[in-house]
Structure formats: structure tokens, C-alpha cells
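User: Let's play a game. I give you a shape written as C-alpha cells, and you guess the letters that built it. Ready? Here's round one.
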């Protein structure tokens, strides 16, 4: 797909922008869950959290994840960008899959909160909040250092 080569800087920039927006949501949504879990169902503050969570998920996180995948696939399809004989790219893709699983799990929790069905304590969401951070750290190390 050599036609992608002239567009490489733009595709890379759009991929990075999408990653930043997606990570912002993956880091912020569980923090909202921490505070929402402390509110009684049906409270005015709880209802505000429902709106914030829904908008964050659907207006920012979903499109950003789509952008990560679209621009990532375009980057990976650009000749000379990825050395497919290196192991780091496969490890990175597994970690991106982990971020995707986290995204969809957060979407399920968002639905639980929206229906006033959350049964998890604040502490659970505090721990969950660390998962995307750890995955992000390893992805960045793999992409920048390419250790293997």
C-alpha cells in the first residue's frame, strides 16, 4: 500500500491524537465511577455522573478508539513502518487488545450505573483505574524502545 507513504506524517499524527483522547477517557471514566459509587442511586449527583459517564464514553472514548484502530491499521499497512519480524509489535497489539477489553468492560459498568445496578465499591474502581495506566506504560515502552 505504497500510496500511504506520502500521508504517513498525517496518519501518525491522527493516530497519536486518537491515542491521547482514548487514554484520557480510559483514565477518567473509572475515576468518575469511584465518585459515582459513593452516591446513593437516584441522587441528583448520581444522575449528573450518569450524564458525564455516558457523554465521555460515547462522545469521546468510542470515536477515539475507532480512530486508534483506523489510523493504526493504516500505519501498519504503510510499507517500511513496521518490521513484522520483530516481537515488540505483537506484544503491543496484545496490550492494545487489553485496552480494548478494558474499554468494553467500562462500557458495561457504565450501563450498570445508568440502570442503578452498580454493586461494586469505590475501592474496586480505584484499582481498575490503574489498569489502563499500566498497559499504556508498557505500550509506550514497546513502541519507543522496541526491546525485542
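Assistant: Ready! My guess for every position:
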Amino acid at each position: 500500500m505504497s500510496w500511504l507513504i506520502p500521508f504517513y506524517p498525517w496518519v501518525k499524527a491522527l493516530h497519536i491524537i486518537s491515542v491521547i483522547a482514548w487514554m484520557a477517557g480510559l483514565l477518567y471514566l473509572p475515576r468518575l465511577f469511584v465518585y459515582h459509587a459513593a452516591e446513593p442511586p437516584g441522587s441528583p449527583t448520581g444522575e449528573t455522573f450518569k450524564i458525564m459517564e455516558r457523554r465521555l464514553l460515547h462522545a469521546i472514548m468510542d470515536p477515539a478508539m475507532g480512530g486508534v484502530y483506523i489510523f493504526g491499521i493504516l500505519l501498519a499497512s504503510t510499507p517500511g513502518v513496521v518490521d513484522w519480524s520483530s516481537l515488540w509489535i505483537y506484544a503491543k497489539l496484545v496490550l492494545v487488545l487489553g485496552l480494548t477489553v478494558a474499554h468494553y468492560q467500562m462500557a458495561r459498568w457504565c450501563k450498570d450505573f445508568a440502570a442503578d445496578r452498580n454493586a461494586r465499591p469505590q475501592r474496586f474502581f480505584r484499582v481498575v483505574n490503574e489498569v489502563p495506566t499500566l498497559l499504556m506504560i508498557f505500550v509506550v515502552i514497546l513502541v519507543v524502545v522496541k526491546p525485542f
